[in-house]
Amino acid sequence: MPPVASSKLNVLGLVGIAACLLAFATLGNVAAFRVVGVVIILHSAYVLITRSVPVGIKGRPASFYLTGASAISIGILLGVIGVLLVLYPGEASRMLASTPS
User: Fold this and answer.
1) How many whole angstroms separate alpha carbon 35 and alpha carbon 23?
2) How many CA atoms lie within 13 Å of 38's alpha carbon, on the beta-carbon side?
3) What is the pLDDT of residue 98?
4) How far is CA 5 from CA 12, 35, 57, in A?
5) Which string of b and e fits 23-40 if b means at least 16 CB within 10 Å?
6) Under a CB-based contact definition with an 8 Å cutoff, are residues 87 and 41 in contact?
7) How distant, in Å, are the alpha carbons of 6, 8, 15, 90 from that of 11?
8) Using an 8 Å Cβ cutoff, are 32 and 21 in contact?
9) What pLDDT sits at residue 35?
10) Contact yes or no for 82/47 (Cβ under 8 A)
11) What is the DSSP letter of 77?
12) CA–CA separation, 24 vs 29, rounded Å?
């Protein structure tokens, strides 16, 4: 991937993380899980469009790329997770944001 495209993706990734953090800090858990779901759906769309998932250690070049059917499967799985978070944020909040009693 060319450096310009890579830097744009890094900025978009940071914007997504910032949106999630801001949502949790200001909106509450239920609305924040909806925001996380939307960010995951957008990432899923990107994976399905590019049909490529880099695998490796953060900060280093990718060791290899998942392509083809495996990338499409990961994109669909991400999309399903994102849609579930958007549709059922209360359940996600109870399961993921609660502390054990």
Assistant:
1) 7
2) 11
3) 63
4) 11, 24, 19
5) bbeeeebeebbbbbbbbb
6) no
7) 9, 5, 6, 30
8) no
9) 94
10) no
11) H
12) 6
Residue with tokens 């849609």: 83
Please tell me the total number of residues recorded for the chain in this structure. Answer: 101
Q: What is the pLDDT of residue 100?
A: 59
Res 81: pLDDT = 96
> Are residues 89 and 31 in contact, defined by beta-carbon separation less than 8 angstroms?
yes
Question: Three-state SS string across 9-42, please?
Answer: HHHHHHHHHHHHHHHHHHCCHHHHHHHHHHHHHH
Mean pLDDT, each 10-residue run in order, the chain (101 residues): 57 89 90 94 93 86 90 95 94 76 48
**Chain Cα centroid distance, residue 22:** 15
